[in-house]
Amino acid sequence: MANFKPGSASNPTSEVELTISCRNLLDCDVFSKSDPMCVTYLKNFEVLDWQEISRTETISNTLNPNFIKKVQVLYRFEEQQNLKFEVYDIDSSDPNLERQDFLGYCETTLGQIVSAGKLTLPLLGLPGNKGLLIVVAEELEVSRDEVLLQFSGRNLDRKDWFGKSDPFLELYKVGEDGDYRVVHRTEVIKWTLNPNWKPFVIPVRSLCGGDMERSIKVLCYDWNRSGNHSFIGEFYVTLNELSRGPGPENVYSCINPQKQRKASYKNSGEIVLMHYELRKVYSFLDYILGGMQLNCTIAIDFTDPGFLH
Question: Where is the C2 domain (predicted)?
């Protein structure tokens, strides 16, 4: 019993992914809207001070951001893990948060978020009502696979009065609560109705939770500098359907539900799968179990540390 260390037994854990969004944020910009970013901090019984664990991307000109970058946390069932979320209006590339406009903060625990599934919290720290922060928790599957996807558009609707469109895509994963949450946003391609977006790689567990039959919603927008992007159309697909690869089966009509009432309406263009590749991502342990051998060369320098050589 002399070697027994209290608390040395492994505690049950689970990897959790947090999706963050905000509503009705304070507008700090004079000629446009705020450019929000959210910073996440963690504190548990082992750490006395808040530790920054993640920063989302900055989304321009919006008071209702849906952040793509997720926060991944190891949920320890028997510990209280405190979380703090701070929202800032980003006006420069300076990483020093003191030089950005503070929009508010909120605190909770990881256990409360996991228990609720979806938690809505008021932002504090400034006088008056400064908006809401919404955080959704979902347990991640063990799968480490990634998928490479590439899409193009054909004959998309023209949305700009004096030009064509500036299209981009957003991919949404359906959660366990039935709500769709954005997981990827492509780049904007200016002045075209036939865009070819760059290939991108996304973890399978982030795209569909490892479920090949889980619904994925794809939305197409025309980008506007104001942040009020014009909706072009949408379609639904599964990773199992995408796995068939490029071809007629993976050409999707981009549908605007508001226009479907017209008898003459067919679609608002087509979205075409150009490339699909499922990639296995192996851990270091996988390589060792697979028979990989490591050869090490070790050298020891016995010379006097004060001697220049």
Answer: 1-123, 129-252
Residue 83 lies in a domain: yes
Strand partners, 236: 217
By the 8 A CB rule, do 261 and 273 touch? no
Instruction: Report CA-CA distances (Å) from 131 to 32, 35, 64, 88, 183.
Output: 18, 14, 9, 12, 23
Residue 101: its H or E element = strand 101-109
- Token pair of 249 as six digits: 């089966």
Residues 131 and 158 in one domain: no
Mean pLDDT of 282-293: 72
Instruction: Give Cα separations from 77 to 12, 124, 184 (angstroms).
Output: 6, 28, 30
Measured CA to CA, the distance from residue 72 to residue 138 in angstroms comes to 10
Q: Which helix or strand (DSSP H or E) is residue 113 part of?
A: helix 110-116
**Residue 189: what pLDDT?**
97
pLDDT tens digits, 159-204: 877 778 999 999 999 987 788 999 999 999 999 999 999 999 999 9
Counting the structural domains of the chain, the total is: 2
Q: Which of 2-11, 133-142, 260-269 has the highest mean pLDDT?
A: 260-269
State how far the Cα of 223 lies from the Cα of 187, in Å rounded to an integer.
Answer: 10
- What CATH number is attached to the domain comprising 73? 2.60.40.150
